[in-house]
Amino acid sequence: MRTEVHVHGSIFLCKGVRLKQVEQALAPWLGYLDVETLADAHSLEREEPGLVFDPRERTLNICWTGEVGRNFQDKLSGAFQNIGPLTEYASEVEVTYYPDHGDEEYFQVFVGPTPEAIHEFRRQCVIEDATNLLSRHLGKAEVDQVATLISNLFEKVEPQKPAAAEHSGSSTVIPLHPRGKHLH
Question: CB 3.0 to 4.6 Å from 72: which of 67, 68, 111, 128, for a disulfide?
């Protein structure tokens, strides 16, 4: 059974990373699509650029939609795990599945050079999200109190280590509630 998926985000790469390195890292995803290069990884949506490496900005920009099967999530996770060592710092990529039954599934994938970098980025994201939400309802002192609590909670939790010891980079997948969807 095939389902439509949309992958969206930017991954920030280290200085000196070349297109060939990015394509090698993304080999599980590209292989799943039966293509060898980013230029051949076309999106189903014509207005979407797909997977674009920008060497000047040192980013991999992703805005790609495709029809996928059951193994896609594993291949995507493998690709993001591989690209982790090429990243300068952690970033977020959103993955949205659109199954036929209509219940969309949203995931945040955090990609970064180390589990610690991803953990810190996730902490910052949660504090930012909570601050934005609560500042509409509470004063600055109360919002700061919650931000401190969140930060303390993250300090107590160990960063998630990659499953395979041979990878020095990392990625983490977090399921989101449908209200957490970010549109572009």
Answer: 68
Look at residues 38, 36, 33 and name the one whose alpha carbon lies nearest to residue 50.
38
| Mean pLDDT computed over every residue of the chain | 85
The verdict on pTM exceeding 0.85 is no
Q: What are phi and psi of 126, to 5 degrees?
A: -65, -45
Q: Which of 99, 109, 116, 137 is nearest to 29 (CA)?
A: 109
> For residue 158, which of 148, 170, 147 has the smallest C-alpha distance?
170
Gap between the Cα atoms of 137 and 119, Å rounded: 28
- The domain spans of the chain are 3-114+159-180, 117-156
pLDDT tens across 87-129, in order? 999 999 999 999 887 788 888 899 999 988 988 888 888 888 8
Distance CA 16, CA 58 (A): 8
Rounded Cα distance between 141 and 63, Å, is: 39
